Amino acid sequence: MANPFRRAFRLDRRSAGDARSSVDEELAFHLAECVEELVAAGWSQREAEVEARRKFGDMEATRAYCTEVQTKRGREERRAMATHDSWQDLKYALRTLRRTPGYSALVVVTLAFGIAATTTIFSAMNPYLLRPLPYGDPDALVQVNQVNRVTGWDKDRFSYPQVADWAARSRAFEALGAYSYGSANLTGPQGPEQAQYSRVTANLFGEVLRAEPFLGRGFLPEEGLPGAEPVVLLGESLWRRRYNGDAAILGQTITADGVQRTVVGIMPERFNFPFGSARFWLPLTQDASGSRASMNEQIVARLNEGWTAEEARTELTGIQAELRAIYPETDGRMEGVTVTPLREALNFVWEIMSVTFAILLGAVVFVLLIACVNVASLTLARGSGRRREVAVRAAIGAPRGRLVRQLLTESLVLSVVGGALGILLSYWAVGLISPVLPEDLYRIGDIELDGTVLTFASVLTLLTPLAFGLFPALSASKVGLTEGLKEASRGSGGLATSRGRRLLVVAQVAMAVVLITGAGLMLRSMSSVQQIDLGFDAEHLVVAEIMLPAGAYPSAQERLDYVDRAVAELQRIPGVVSASASSWLPLNHETHTWQVTPSSQAGTPTEQWPLTVVNRAHPGYLETMGITLLAGRAFTALDGADGAPVVMVSRSLADRLWPGEDAVGKTLLGGADASEPVSYQVVGVVSDIQFEALGGGEIGTQLYTPTLQAAGRRYFLLARTEGTPGALIPAAREALGVADPDLPVSARPMTAVVGENLLQWSIGTVLLGIFGGGALLLATLGIYGLISYSVSQRRAEMGVRVALGASRNEIRRSVLGDGLRMTLVGLALGLVLAVALARLVASVFYGVSPFDPLTLGGVMALFLGVATVASLIPAERASRADPASVLRME
Amino acid sequence: MGTNQRGLLPGTVDLVILQTLSEGPMHGFAVSRSIGARSRGVLELQDAALYQALHRMEKSGWIDAEWGISEKGKRAKYYRLNASGRRQLQQEAGFWRDYARAVAAILEPIVESGLEAGHQKG
Question: ipTM of the predicted structure?
Fold first, then answer.
């Protein structure tokens, strides 16, 4: 028998159909041989066929059995083949990439930066915008607020009697609770400490938020009633730090603002309500017969199944209307209800933050795209250098799909290494940014690379090869055999490749332009904000916040004595020019407002009385803050409780109340509750200051009353120094320690308070600047790389042109023109896109238009300059082309 | 089919096929005829059982299959014993030799007493 294997062709088991026909063919062959044998022995053809089948036995069962076996084997073989192919691809990719370490390293580093930037921004957004709230079924949770008719504020609060009425009348909610928050002094053997807390209704944690303490129990309904035993729930972090994580604290008492409170439970670390720096919780006194006018509570509620926030709002608006009719003096001041998802409501800066993160995420996606474009461009260039290799592989029979797969495997290897490196970089970057972000902003958990972020980064890593590798792979695999083999010796890229690279460079420039323009607009916004005249001098000023506990300071006189003592101690510090105190601080995100009117117009309806920010000022306030006294006098020690009620007004308030007249000596009516106004005499007119958040709008009006005529519990102590405020802080702490050693003090420079107002712009400027700078660098490299490459490809042409008498300048100009043309196209596209995007998010910019000529002009100059430099180097090289040597090379 | 023809005992089908293929690659029909010829018609292996066994052993990895051209120039599926099949054959053959020897030792007295005479005709 001749060796049949020499002539063998491949056994086909590609599909189930192939398996069946193969079995059929085999059995048919057998029958045919049998019949032939029988016919030779003298049987008739027909009888032989019947006999062959009879002798065979059960034909159908055999056919079925064999087909099944072959189908199964086919499946296994195909699987094994695929694994084998992938493994081959991988080994081949690693070998090829090792041969071009420069390309590999460049791609890995570029991708690593792109993925790191995207992952870092994503991990920063995660706790604010994405991670689920640490409560049960959080999507049904909303915060309810009223709209204040006078101020127009749509997040106004409730008094407990109102909360009780709304809860009783509403059907929209499964559970409705309320909270307020404040700051208290913890005292005891651990030393004094100021901590923020929240007061909550007994049902808030268990029924509304569905969050339970991990030790002990939540509040009982009777603990919210007036006169109940004082209790407290501790947050895990406070419990671990201050009470050493000792479970024995349950049932013992701690002292908060001088009141002994029994610890009933510990809330877990990840629980966070209503903001991260709330360290403990007290029962809100649920006194339905309390004052209806003191509206300090926020409502948080869980929607009943089947109710939407909008339906709830409609129902509540009806309830509000009923109550307005019953209580016109209090409820009548509110008209309108807002129902906000809890995540948005608890984040004070939701709007700014969501826009800022959208911009930053957009920016990093641009960065990643630019990185991909850059890598695509490199890969394309490399592909054109590999035409010979590809052509050879195609010639020996590799199908195109296989070639594309092979080239994509190389991209995948690079992106996986780049992604891993990017994630490592991101760990480091996250460590850098997380301390910059303010802690008391509502967020869930830390800024870290958790499972969600890692999944995001991995998906990104696996997607990038498609973004940067597919186009070059398709382009490289599309190679005509003869053409590829012939052309390969010169490694020419071909027309299609260089057009592709040109497009990529234009895209890169356009995206870099968008980022740099964004950074420029942010920078201009920040400088506009910084140029806002604060009306006071924030430099050389230290501010310390203190809270006087009711226990240690029961009477108003004791509190005022403390303030006097503290101010005197501060003044005694060498270098301190002046010291004073006030009840509120400008730019600190809280305002106290009054409605006021000239006494001569007492008849006008209170609703029409102008609203003004009020602050209580200690003697020496004006000079310490650097506010100018324009007319009359400042407060003195004589403006005490037994003196006549006096006020100072800011210039714009004076102009509003008494236009064209001298305000000093006039009287006005006003108070926190306009229905019970008090008469005050104006003793001084002072310059306006920026009291509300920077960039938030118009400068408002201010009115000052003397601290000595209305003692509060919370004060900001102020000290102006000749030196740096940082140096004064330890001395200030020491001085305040002399005034009361048990009082916790938090002191910082006033410039830090101002800086917090600039945070959104400074973060925006820094991050967009970094991303934009990186993008500019990549785009520059892109221009440079492409121009150098095309110069090297056109050496022969240049040589010929020089030989034909073209001057070196002409050559230089032609190359330079090439680079600038691409840049101009990218620049034009980028600027249009940048302006369009900037208009979309105009709310984040301040005092600068998206068409800002300085920014746009600067960007143009920057890119043209950079492109000129990037093209000039290869242009110079081209102009030095030596015709003789070039022609010889051909 | 005469009385002297017996179907193969269970467990011997694989052995017989493997032994046949140890002589060289063949297609199914050739295997069938080779077994018939070597046992001088005593051992009859039904074709249905033969083909099922071939495919089963191909799946077990004892024999390889490939399409080739028969002596008469037709496309036929050829089977070839591979290394693992050869090992399997040695193991099976060793077992059968031991088994046959044991059975023969037990039958020895019967053979001597001439009770086997009837069979000697064939």
Answer: 0.83
